[in-house]
Amino acid sequence: MAKEGDGERALLAAEPELSEPGPGAGTGAQSEAESVSGAGASPLSALCDPAHLAHRIVALAFMCLLGFGSYFCYDNPAALQIQIQEDMQIHTVTFMLLYSWYSWPNVILCFFGGFLIDRVFGIRWGSIIFSLMVCIGQVIFAMGALVNAFWLMQLGRFVFGIGGESLAVAQNTYAVSWFKGKELNLVFGLQLSMARIGSTVNLNVMGWLYSRVEGLLGYSGHTTLGITLMIGGVTCIFSLICALILGYLDWRAERILHKEQGKTGEVIKLTDMKDFSLSLWLIFVICACYYVAVFPFIGLGKVFFMGKFKVSTEEASAINSIVYVLSAPLSPIFGLMVDKAGRNIFWVLCAVVATMASHVMLAFTFWNPWIAMCLLGISYSLLACALWPMVAFVVPEHQLGTAYGFMQSIQNLGLAIMSIVAGEVLDLWGYFFLEVFFIACVSVSLLAVVLLYLVDYTRGGSLNCSARQRVELSKMTDTNVSLESPIPSLPVHCGQWWLLLFQSISWGRRTASCSRSRILAWP
Amino acid sequence: MLGERPRARGVPARCHCLLLLQCLLLLRAPAGLLGDQTRRVSLEVIPEPKDPSQNLLHIRAVGVNSTIHYIWSSLGPPAVLFVATDTPHSVLSINWSSLLSPEPEGSLAVLPAKSVRFSSALIFPRLFEFDSTNSSEVKDGSPGKPYPPYLLANFSWDDVNSTLDPTMLSATFQGRPSKDPLGAFSNGSLAFKVHAFSGSGRAAHLPRLLHTADTSQLEMVLSGAVPQGNHSLFGLEVAIPVLDSECPQLKEQDSIDDEYCPSVFQLAQLLWHSSPEGFLQWRPVAFSQKQPDWKTAVPCQVSRPGPTLATLLPQSRIVIAFFGSSVNFCTFNLTFGDSTGPAYEDQRYLSWSALLGIGIPPVDSFSPLVLGIMVAVLGAPALLLVGGGLSLLILRHRRYSEYEPIS
Q: Which whole-number Å values give the CA distances from A328 to A72, A206, A332, in the listed order?
C-alpha cells in the first residue's frame, strides 16, 4: 500500500504548479480573509479560519487520518495469516489471492484514479466515495469470514482494492490543494508516516484482537475471524467520517476563499507509451522487480520468523512491521538527502544491494532477523525516495502522468502475479526457496540498475549527476529540472565508487563529461 | 574401516564447506559394510508354527557385503530390533517355543554371531494423552495434565500379513486396546507403518525425509480415537536397550534449507555411540491431517533420553530374546502438538514419521535448482558489472580522444 503513496508523492512533487488555484483567487481571498480575522484573532477563530495555518493543520490531521483505515486494513491478512489459513482451511496460494485481488483492479485504476477525481466525482465526492468503497470492501471481507465463504472474502478485497489506491490519490490531491507551495514536502512526509503507522498498528494489534475475541467467544473459527475483521473495519468507518469532515472543510474553504477544488493534474495518454525511453522502461523493471521482493515477503514473513528463528508470535509481528516502522521517520530524511545530494542511481543501487543483502541474510544465516529486517526497512525507504523522482528526469513533463500511472500499474500487475507465485513457491518448496526466488527478483532489479547507469551514461543523461551538476545543467540549458538546492552534501565522487574497480578517472573530467554530454544531448 | 568414517551431522547452518568435504570423503570411501547405493530388500512374515497369529515381520536388506535386519514384533509392546552384519549371508534364527516361554533369552539371533557389527532396538511402551487446556501448566513446558496412558502391550494388533506389500516394501501394524471401557478406540486405531527402501530417494508426502538403502521408515498414525479432553495432546514413549549405561545422544540441528519440508528448519537425530552408529532421524513435526500439509503441521517436542529401570517398562520378548534380561534401558518421550494451533481433535488424525537406520544419517543438500538459480543470480550482475565497466572504459577513451583536437 505504501508504494502508491510514494508514486503520488513523486508525481505531485514534480509538478506542484498543476494544482494551483485559479489565477489571483488564492492570494486575493487570502488577504481578504486575513483582514477579516484581524491581528487580534483568538486561537479559536484561527482554528476556524481556512486561511490560517492552525486551520490547515486541523485539515492536515483529517487528511492523515483519511488514509488510516485503508492502510490499517490492507495488511489485515498478513497480521492474521495463520488464523485465516486455519479458520478458512486454505493453502498459502489461496491465501495470497487476498493480496492479489487487491492489486488487480489497480492495474487499470492507476490510469483512471486521477481522471475520476478530476473529471467525474471531484475531490470531495471522490474521497467520500472511495472511503465508502474501502468500508464496503472491508465489511464484505469480514462477512466472508463470518459466513465461512472464502470467495466472498476475495470479493471484499477486490472492492477494497478499488477504493484503496484511489483514496491515496485523493489524499494526495487534498494535500496539494491545501498546502501547495507551503509545507507540501512535510505534508507528504507526514501522510506517508501515517500510512506506515496504520500498517504497523495493524500488524501488532490484529493478532491480539483475535485472541481477545476468541477469549470472549470461547472458541476460535471463522466466526471469530469475521468478528475480528469487522472490528478492524471500524478504522475504515473512522476514515469515512474523516472524508466527510474533510469534504465539509474543503467546501467551506472554497466558499470563503473562493478557491478551486483540488485537481490531481494527471493527464494520461496511453499513446505516450510509444515515446517512453529505454531508461524509463528500465526504471519500470527496477520498480516491479524490487517491490515484488518486499511486499509479498512481508505478507508471508510472520510464519517464517516463527519457524526459522523461533521467535514468539508477537515478536514475529514486530519484526515484520519494522520495515514500516523504520520507513515512517526515514522517508522524509532520505527524501531530503537525495534532494540535496542528487546521484539517484547510486542511491537506488545502494538500496537494491542492501535489499539483496538482507534477503541473503534471511535465507542463508541464522543471524538475528531484526538486523536483516532493519536493513530491508532502510533500503526500502531509500529506494522509494531515489527511484520515483528519477521518472521526472527521463520523461517530458506532459508525459509524467502517463509514466507514473504506468509505473504504478506495472507494479500492481507485478504484485498481483507475484503474490500468487510466491504462495505457490512457498507451498511447494518452502521458505528457503522462496527467499532464493526473492533474491533472484532483486537480482533482476540490480541488473536493471546497472544497465540503467550504463544507458544513462552513454546517452549523456543526468540521472546520476549530483544536485550541483543538475543545477548547473538547468542554468546552462535554461531548463527547469525542479531542483532547488545548489549544495551537494556528499562528495562528488561517491556515485562512482564501484567504477573505481575498473578505471581511475579524475573527478574533474567526470563532472565536465556529465555537463558537456548533457549539453550535447539538448538541442 | 568403519572407524575411519567421517561423522555426518545433518546440515549445519554454518558448515557447508565441511558438508561438501564430507560428501567428497563419502564418495571416496570404499564400499564398506554400509553405504551401499542399493540393497536387495525382502519382507517376510515369520509365523509361529502352531499359532500363525503370533508372528514377526523380518525385513532383510542385503548389500554387496553387508546385511541389515529389521525385526518388527507386536509380542508385548511394539518393538523393532535392528541388526547390521558385515556379510551378505547372515540369517535370522528363531526358536519359537523358547521365544514364547517365560524365559526367552537367546531364542532369537542373527547368525553368524561374529558378523554382527551393530545391534539395537526401539520399544514403544506407552501412548500418552495430556490435557493442554490448563494454560499455567503448559507455560512450564509440560504438555499439560496427563490422563492415564495407554499401555501398548495391552493392545491387540491386526494380522500384519494382510497389510504386507512386497512391491512397495511396506507393512502396517494396526492395533487398538484389548479392553476399551470408554470406547475411545471403537472407531479408531494406532498404527505403525513400516517402509523399507532398496535405494535412496524421498517420499512424495511430508516430511519428505531423505532415505537411503541403509534406512527404513517408521510412521506412527493415530486416527479416529476419541480424545479424553477438549484439547488433548498425545505423546509416545520410546525405550532403547543399552548394554552400558550410556544413552544415545539426542541432537537437534538447525538447517537453513526447508525446501523439502516447508517452514521446518530443524532436524532431530538420536545417535548411538557405537561404530557403525545407529540413528533415528526425524523432523520435529507431526501432521494433523491425512493429506500432510505444512499448515496443518503440529510441533513435536522431544525429551532428553535418560536411563530408566527395566522393571518400569513392559517387557518386549524379542528384545530380551536378543539382548538377554540384564539389559538396561533408556527412554525418551515425544509429544505432538501444543496448546495453541492445530490439534488432534480437529481431524482426529495424527501422523509422525522417522527414519531408522545404520551408518551415516542421510543429509539434505541444496537442490540443483537452487544452486542453478544462485549461480545465475550472483553471476549475471557480476558479469554485467565487469562487462559494463570495461565497455565504459573503452567508450570514455574514445570520447575523450574525440575531444582532444578541440582543446
A: 14, 20, 8
Place of cell 508525459: A399
pLDDT in tens, A413-452: 888 888 889 888 888 888 999 999 999 999 999 999 988 9
Yes or no: say if B160 and B187 are a contact pair by the CB < 8 Å rule: no
**DSSP, residue by residue, A113-153:** HHHIIIIIIHHHHHHHHHHHHHHHHHHHHHHHHHTT-HHHH
Number of domains in chain A: 2
Residue A503 lies in a domain: no
B202 to chain A, any CB pair closer than 8 A? The answer is no
Residue B239 belongs to what H/E stretch? Answer: strand B232-242
In terms of CA atoms, which chain A residue is nearest residue B393?
Answer: A503
User: Is the pLDDT score of A63 beyond 70?
Assistant: yes
Domain boundary among the residues A230, A247, A265 is at: A265
Which range, of B123-127, B138-142, B387-391, averages the lowest pLDDT?
B138-142
Alpha-carbon gap: B322 to the closest alpha carbon of chain A (Å): 42
Judging contacts by C-beta atoms under 8 Å, the chain B residues touching residue A457 are 392
Cis peptide preceding B177, ω within 30 of 0: no
Cell 548411538, residue located: B272
Backbone angles phi, psi at B169, to 5 degrees: 55, 45
Asked whether residue A212 falls in the same domain as residue A334, the answer is no
Q: Return phi, psi of residue B272, to 5°.
A: -80, 155
Q: Does B206 touch chain A (CB under 8 A)?
A: no
What size, in residues, is chain B?
407
A369: left (phi over 0), alpha (psi -120 to 50) or beta: alpha
- If we measure between CA atoms, which residue out of B246, B238, B221 comes closest to residue B313? B238
- Residue A166 CA to residue A67 CA, distance in Å, equals 10
A275 and A181 in a common domain: no
Complex-level ipTM beyond the 0.85 threshold: no
pLDDT at B146: 83
Residue in B closest to A93 by C-alpha: B295
Give yes or no for a contact between B68 and B50, defined as CB atoms under 8 angstroms apart.
no
Residue (of B236, B186, B187) closest to B353 by Cα position: B236
Host domain of residue A144 = 46-265
Nearest-by-CA chain B residue for A352 = B381
Closest-CA distance of chain B to residue A307, Å: 6
Tell me: do A284 and A193 sit in the same domain.
no
Measured in residues, chain A has a length of 523
- CB within 8 Å: B370 and A432: yes
Spatial neighbors of A183 by CB under 8 A, at least 6 apart, are none
Q: Residue B192 and residue B42: Cα distance in Å, rounded?
A: 18
Asked if B53 and B90 count as a contact pair (C-beta separation under 8 A), the reply is: no
What radius of gyration, in Å, describes the C-alpha atoms of chain A? 23
Q: How many CB atoms lie within 10 A of CB B25?
A: 13
The helix/strand/coil state of B151 is strand
User: Which letter does DSSP use for residue B236 in this model?
Assistant: E
Q: Does B342 touch chain A (CB under 8 A)?
A: yes
**Residue A200: other Cβ atoms inside 10 A:** 24
As a whole number of angstroms, the distance between CA B289 and CA A455 comes to 55
A430 and A318 part of one domain: yes
Nearest in space to A301 (alpha carbons), one of A203, A158, A367, A412: A203
- The reply to whether A490 falls in a domain is no
Q: Which of A6, A4, A75 is nearest to A331 (CA)?
A: A6
Number of H helices, E strands in chain B: 6, 25
Q: Which residues of A touch B293 (CB under 8 A)?
A: 91, 427
Assign A322 to helix, strand or coil.
Answer: helix
Share of chain B above pLDDT 90, in %: 11
Closest chain B C-alpha to A192 CA, distance in angstroms: 32
Q: A21 has which bridge partners?
A: none
% of chain B at pLDDT higher than 70: 87
